[in-house]
Amino acid sequence: MEKGNQNSIFEQGPAVAEIIIKALDSAAKKTHADQKEIWAVVNQPEMLFKLIEDIFVERLEKKVPLLRQVNLNEELVIEPLNGDRNITDAKELFKSYIEEFFIGLGKNEANYPTPEIFLNVYEVIEDRDFVRIFNSIGSELDKLVLSHHQIIRFCEKYFAWLAHEGGVTLFLTKVNYEYSVVNVCSYYDGLNVHNYRFRAGDIWEAKRHHRIVLPKFIKAA
To answer: Out of 63, 93, 175, 211, which residue is the most buried by the measure of CB atoms under 10 Å away?
Structure first.
């Protein structure tokens, strides 16, 4: 921030304080929070700091492309699937390693019949975590979800479009009503597959050329 702009904000301290008070009052009315709950927030200013910081980071990220489409000259389509294939059963495909998480899943917890779907492949071009990457796309997360059967079929049919040489390919999915990210990595002895909780924290570096597979109708930022 330039010094002149910073001083201008400081000089408007009372006005800024009034805006914050109105925001707290509005939130309290809409959520029916009582005085005790309001003071619980006020007495933890780090919560407000983090909230305001996240707002500015989100605004900035909307101006910075996080993904670049790589399959510009090839159409990728997965045919209708009945949802009867689980990752844990695809041992010939994921020869290198299958995380135990998939072994513990019930037969239909991450699968269901799906119609034909067209997909695009994107490369991560800015260092970000899962939450920032997928939320930057500007669409409801449910519209980005692929079933495990669709993920298996993509890896079989479009192996060449997976990330290689140390990168991973990421697929958003949903298991037991919770979002998670399936991570497919190519090794000399075949593919391995992991599951990650959908949460902020771990940064995926652009220099590793990670890829993300999304439905074609989504316009990635």
So the answer is: 211
